[in-house]
Design goal:
single chain, 208 residues, alpha+beta, S16 Ribosomal Protein, Chain: A, 5-stranded mixed β-sheet, 5 strands, 15% strand, rod-shaped
Length: 208
């Protein structure tokens, strides 16, 4: 039967004290034990002689039988010169448990999801800004080119108006000349000024 020298907890809540016992390694921590070999009271000052009590003879007897102390009891025995104690190197001791690992993984997934959402939001904002800048640039180009494109149209309209005015003037003069010639053939003496719209009737009355 393998035996451990370990602590067995007793006392009230927040006021513990421990027995140092020799117990079967298969027994629960605070369960049955074979023999008590000391006591440990963490509520006492560290410099108190009663903080750790060891039954040296019993402990030596159990060590000769092959009993092995736990990490905490080994510290006590090392301080008393009963056991060569060195700082433990248990790489598994500091590892988190299964539930802690699940919580760590859950936090990691949430952090990754949050980072992905932030990156997506930044990318969308960048795309929106790029589109807005492109639209503004296009609008500015259209505004810049609009007067240059409309200028030839305005010039053509002005030229057409001048041509129409010139044509109208030419037709008016031709009609005036023709009217004068017709009046002369009819034996009516009249000039171009006499044949204006507001004086033609007067000229006819005078000749008639």
């Amino acid at each position: 039967m393998a035996v451990k020298l370990r602590l067995a907890r007793h006392g009230a809540k927040k006021r513990p004290y421990y027995r140092i016992v020799a117990a079967d390694v298969r027994a629960p921590r605070d369960g049955r034990f074979i023999e008590q070999v000391g006591a440990y009271n963490p509520m006492l000052p560290k410099d108190s002689e009663d903080r750790v009590k060891l039954d040296v003879e019993k402990i030596q007897a159990w060590l000769k039988k092959g009993a092995r102390p736990t990490e905490r009891v080994a510290r006590f025995l090392g301080a008393a010169g009963l056991w060569e104690w060195k700082a433990g190197n248990n790489p598994e001791k500091g590892k988190p448990g299964e539930k802690a690992l699940e919580r760590i993984e859950e936090r990691k997934e949430k952090a990754e999801a949050r980072a992905a959402a932030e990156a997506e939001a930044k990318e969308a904002a960048a795309e929106a800004k790029k589109a807005a800048d492109a639209a503004a640039k296009e609008a500015a180009e259209e505004a810049k080119n609009a007067p240059a494109e409309e200028a030839p149209v305005a010039e053509e309209a002005a030229a057409d108006a001048d041509d129409k005015k010139h044509t109208k003037t030419s037709l008016t003069k031709m009609l005036e000349v023709d009217l004068v010639a017709l009046a002369n053939e009819m034996g009516i003496e009249a000039t171009v000024d006499d044949l204006k719209a507001d004086t033609v009737q007067k000229v006819l009355d005078k000749q008639g």
